[in-house]
Amino acid sequence: MTTRIHEILKKYPSELLAEWIGAMTAGGVRRDALMKEAELREQCAEFLRLLTQATEHGNLTDITGSSFTPAREMLERLSRSRSLQGFSPAETATFIFSFKQPLFDRLRSEYASQPLVANEEMWGGTLLLDKLGLYTTEVHQRAREEVIMRQQQEMMELSTPVVQLWDRIVCLPLIGTLDSGRTQTVMETLLQRIVETGAEIAIIDITGVPTVDTLTAQHLIKTVTATRLMGAECVISGIRPQIAQTIVHLGVDLAGVVTKSSVAGAFNWALKRLHQSVSVPGQRTPGKA
Amino acid sequence: MERIPILRMGQVLLVTIQVDMHDQLAVTLQDDLTAKIVDTGARGVLIDISSLEVVDSFIGRILGNIATMSRVLDAQTVVVGMQPAVAITLVELGMSLPGIRTALNVEKGMALLQSSMDADEAVLEVADASLED
To answer: For the whole model, what pTM was predicted?
Structure first.
């Protein structure tokens, strides 16, 4: 059984297309800056073709069915690309919703003598187009979330650079709040880099960490212990007066962890530990005076 | 029966764990190693676990025990080549293995053992010298 909507779609494809684009232009949803007219026309034509195919078997209510698969896939592609292009979810959904006007106009004129039939078909059409519209919004949202997730991941990786300061000395300058997820990444990158570089001393600099709570302190201690287990030593530097106060107030036991107030101090300690020294040309070292 | 080989290099016993440790194997290693320390009068034990990818709390405890036992038998233990994942697991299990000395690889572990044995010798010599005086 073919539906009347399918008949209409089949009968007036080019008219519907023209009116649809007209409706979009009138509704102000066309964004010429973001998308060329030719591209929009192409998308509309493709959607019409797929919708005609999908409605051929009389299924108008279940858009998750197999007959709607090509149409759904096309909408997914369109929604994703629009989300990346900077369209809002409403604008994306209006792409579908603005098709109502031309379709219903056609239905009304075609079945002018049978108002009941026209009404019924319009209801069916509304339901169908609403579902498709909501589907685009959903995909749009999902695409956005994926972007955010990816950015979070990238930021996490960017925010833990392990730099080699000297032969056998690496430094990890931490910036920003440390939550458990980030600390895990921090620990993994640091240990991995220790293996790669064969570093014997790791300096964790927390100058850029605004607050330290018990959990963060615990994570830091864990990292220090793990480093020690691997056979390297760990220094924590950049502890600001406020953080020192908090740590003591919280009763965190940092005994057994070497701490220095600045990276310079930690670096100096590391050099001494490795029996190395830096000499400035033209200056006599104090020991050899 | 499966056994982990213990090699002797001068005053040092060398253990390279190249199979996945299961509990029985670990206990056997502990027995063999303590016996061998007494037999050879070794002063140092070097355990290379670089090919070990999984460590549970039991194996962790055995490693700790081995270190303590060999100290009682007057030998120092150095564990070398722990993988990051293993270190993280042990820390998450709450095992910081406080009695164990560690090094990044066999070379550094050997140097560590050598220097601590040299230090022991030096102390002995000083003691001898003071006795003679």
So the answer is: 0.64
